Amino acid sequence: MVPRQKLHVRGPExxxxxWGAWRALKGEETKTPPGLARFIDRCxxxxxxxxxxxxxxxxxxxxxxxGAALRESASGRDAIEIxxxxxxxxxxxxxxxxxxxxxxxGRTHIFASVENSLKEIGTDRLDLLLLHRPxxxxxxxxxxxxxxxxxxxxxxxxxxVSNHAPAQVSLLQSRMTVPIVTNQVEMSLMRLDALDDGTLxxxxxxxxxxxxxxxxxxxxxANPEDATARPVREALAKAGAxxxxxxxxxxxxxWLLRLxxxxxxxxxxxxxxxVQSIARACTMALEAQDWYRILAAARGPLA
Length: 303
Ligand SMILES: NC(=O)c1ccc[n+]([C@@H]2O[C@H](COP(=O)([O-])OP(=O)(O)OC[C@H]3O[C@@H](n4cnc5c(N)ncnc54)[C@H](OP(=O)(O)O)[C@@H]3O)[C@@H](O)[C@H]2O)c1
Hints:
The protein is of the alpha/beta class. It is built from twelve helices and twelve strands.
């Protein structure tokens, strides 16, 4: 079973691995509501209960797709934690009034977006709401007040951010009494900025576990045709052999799980056999020397 942890001391509790619904409408197993219902039931059976969404996924169609699936699933709404995001306003047929793509963390949009997400998913509460990207024009006080009011209303149980620099997290937190429980950031052996740019240090300092998107580099790490990732794949395979895990994707996730900031990787595969194989990462405690060997394969020998 995939274990559980709190993102922050004040909640919420999540599964140590989340599943990301971004690609749901493209996967053979997940593109229909009954298929997604079965997929989620199987994830819940192995302990993956945290589902990551955003209003914009699938051209604003994925939240409704999940809602339809939940109505057919055996496990149902109460068996999962729903994470969704707001704040990116793209141009497209689902939002004809947007003239230019922009970010919006203003009060009116936050409330409208949450009401829409609740309606699409068919639920009375979001376990976690994230500001998808920083809005350079929204005063921190305004965003903070709106998020606090949503938590007070019970429609949102916890709040966080995504793709924020550490100073941007600190600014918003300085205006709010409810905690920012996570900063959801891109990280993988193909994208290591968070190690050095203060993101993981801040997460550990605030005891707010980061959520990690594209933890396999969007699939590049597992793709044998991607030449850039070849040295990393070789290092992952070698470590996997040492620990009896024959899936480099699982070892790549175990590499992230080893970090002391307690990251929650969001698995993006739409194939349950792959998700199940990756879940073995939770049983694998990489020794420090194996961890550093993999790091060196990703970005060159240590100084
Ligand atoms: N906050 C943000 O700004 C942001 C941005 C992007 C994504 N996200 C979240 O992060 C989640 C994960 O992102 P991601 O989909 O890029 O994650 P990922 O796990 O890095 O990549 C998943 C992709 O890799 C492919 N893949 C190929 N071989 C695989 C293998 N052996 N094992 C597993 N996957 C393999 C999958 O294809 P198959 O489906 O065919 O297995 C899928 O297309 C998203 O669903 C979304 O919830 C957040």
